[in-house]
Amino acid sequence: MSKLTVTIPDDLHQKIREELERQVITTSQFIEQAVTTFFEKPKGVSNMATRTLAFQVSEELLQRIKTFLARYEQIYHRKLSQKEFLVHLIERELDEAEKDYERITTEQAAEENADVDSGEPDGTEMEVDAQY
Fold this sequence. Notes:
- By secondary structure, this protein is mainly α.
- It has four helices and no strands.
- The protein is elongated, with a radius of gyration of 27 Å.
């Protein structure tokens, strides 16, 4: 293990201290998370603007999440924040939903093409009885 010493402005230091208290982690854990996040960021991705997403959960669900995160740390020897955990879950579900959407729209388009190819009326044709 190596040590790293940095000098930062007092206001930034205060923000870090507040975040440490909020996450209940050590300074070393916080810096490790920040550096890991920096190096794991896909190439070409810049710091994107972020928005806050806040919601309430039951005490029971919160305790389940905390239990999971504690077990995660025991197994992987790395602290996973609530934010990292929830963002990962949301991204995974959105990816799956996008795949489902693509599959469904592809299937619907194939069905529509099959109807047109079979020569069946699709409701837009009009029968005309011409008398001469």
